[in-house]
Structure formats: C-alpha cells, structure tokens
Design a protein that fits this description.
The complex is a heterodimer of chains A (about 110) and B (about 180).
Chain A lengths: L2 H13 L3 E4 L26 H16 L6 H35 L1
Helix pairs in contact in A: 2-3
Chain B lengths: L4 E2 L1 H9 L3 H5 L3 H22 L10 H7 L4 H13 L2 E2 L5 E2 L2 E3 L15 H26 E2 L16 H14 L3
The chains are: A mainly alpha (about 110), B mainly alpha (about 180).
Chain lengths: ~110, ~180
C-alpha cells in the first residue's frame, strides 16, 4: 500500500464519528442500559408529556397546597387541566396551519 | 411579607436535596411529595434520554438550569464526564454516537441521545431544576412552623358588604 493511501485511511479514521455500544434488538433500550443509554421512543416521544405533567403537578402542588388532605385531588386536577390545555393548543395550531393559512393564501 | 421569616438552613437543605428543606421545617409529608416529584423528574429524564441528559460540557446552558437541583445533578455530570465519555480525535471528551445495528465493536461509554429523545431528557431535568428553585424560595421565606404553603386562593371578600360596613362606621364617628 502506498504511503498516500495509508495517510488517507488514517485521516478518515481520525475524522470518523466515535460510536458507542452497537444497537441490538428491538427493545426500548436496544441492548443498552436503562438510565445510561437513551430510550428508543423516537415515534412515541410525545407520550412522555403525560408523566412530565404529572410529576410537575406533584412537585408544584407540594409547595402550593395548604391542606395536604386535598393534595392528590389537586395533582390530578392540574394534570388533567394541563393535558387538556395542551391538546386544545395543538388542535388550534393544527387548524391555523392546515386550514386557516391555506385559506388566506387562496 | 407578613408572618414570614427568612430560613437559611431550610433553603440550604432544599438545595442539597430536593424536599429536604421541608424536613427542616418539620413537614415530612410535604417533603416526600415535593422530593418524589422533583427526583422523579430527574429519574424520568435519565430513563428517557440516558446519562446524556446531564452534560455540563456539551449542553452548558441546559446544565445551568439543571444544576439548580443541587449535588444530585453535579454528581450525575461528574459520573458522565469521567466514566462514560470517550476521547475523540481532537482530544475532547464526547458522548459517542450509537453504532449501527450489527456492528461488532463499540467503544465503551454511554450512547448519545438524538433528536427529540435528547430534548425530552434535557427538558425533564431542567424543569426539575426550576421546580427546585421554587422549593428553595418557598423554604427560604417561610411562615410559622407547620404553616408551610402559600395559599392557592385568596379568601373571598364581599366588597359591597365591606364598603357598607365602612360607610356605617364613618357615619357613627362623631365629627
């Protein structure tokens, strides 16, 4: 092998992106370790909003609710209100982008 | 603010571990609820985005918010930087990309989270940081022991009745 080709191969190896553990299987972590490797939920990522909203409500209502007897009721109420708000907002944006703007453009 | 006292010990404890400030204030139940919510968000972020969700070197702006969670996030970042990153060609420590399926050898270390999964992981831990800031402020300026929360709603005041009483009182006063 000529020195130019060897140098080229070495340069290519130096510029190649580093890779971690290879993807294996079809599980949620594709052969990786939970809490260390990311989940393979690229098509269902939007579902993560449900636990997010619930945990935010848990922490927020923990500081705001005066009488903790009403704590869980308040947490579920805030979770539902936020989720319904997000769904309505998504619907509004969809209507605006898919219907109203095309109508205005003629 | 009436009836509120500055509680530096509770504020520092709240910064050390989410929820611990309320333990110092004698409200264990509230401490468990708040701590579970914030630590649950951190755990959720790690579960979704992996250890790449906390990275002071590659996502410094996000880390600036995440660090409000205190030593938990600092320790996670330390572990990430020192045990799960690899050195690239330029000598920088980076989180490696996932190798393609079927690849025989992979470098040690965690995989980089990509696209929205990466965003969601970062967001979970960052929101936990912002909520912990609220908790720190709540613990720092606190009312009487046992009176741990700010009321969600103000007491209702009947303005017309209130005004009528004031007018009657003014009329009673000798001029």
């Amino acid at each position: 092998m000529n020195p130019g080709a060897i140098q080229g191969a070495a340069q290519h190896a130096a510029n190649a992106p580093l890779t971690g553990a290879p993807l294996a299987g079809h599980g949620l972590w594709q052969g990786g370790t939970p809490f260390i490797d990311p989940m393979n939920i690229h098509d269902q990522w939007w579902l993560t909003v449900i636990p997010l909203v619930f945990l935010v409500a848990m922490a927020y209502k923990g500081t705001r609710v005066q009488d903790l007897a009403h704590y869980w009721r308040q947490v579920w109420l805030m979770t539902l209100q936020t989720l319904i708000g997000l769904i309505l907002f998504a619907f509004g944006v969809h209507v605006l982008l898919e219907w109203i703007i095309p109508l205005l453009r003629g | 603010m009436q009836g509120q006292r500055f509680q530096p010990v509770a504020a520092i404890l709240a910064l050390l571990l989410p929820g611990l400030g309320y333990v110092a204030l004698g409200d264990l139940k509230r401490a468990i609820y708040v701590g579970a919510g914030i630590l649950g968000l951190i755990a959720g972020g790690l579960l979704i985005g992996g250890l790449d969700s906390v990275d002071s070197k590659e996502d410094p702006l996000w880390y600036g918010v995440q660090v409000l969670n205190g030593p938990v996030v600092i320790a996670l970042d330390y572990v990430h930087q020192h045990h799960f990153k690899v050195v690239d060609a330029q000598g920088a420590r980076v989180t490696p990309l996932p190798a393609p399926a079927g690849a025989s050898a992979g470098k040690p270390g965690s995989r980089r989270a990509l696209a929205r999964v990466s965003d969601v992981g970062l967001l979970y831990v960052a929101i936990a940081g912002m909520l912990n800031l609220i908790t720190i402020i709540e613990c720092a300026w606190h009312g009487r022991p046992g009176d741990t929360a700010t009321p969600t709603k103000r007491p209702k005041v009947d303005r017309r009745k209130d005004a009528a009483v004031r007018i009657r009182r003014a009329g009673d006063t000798p001029s």
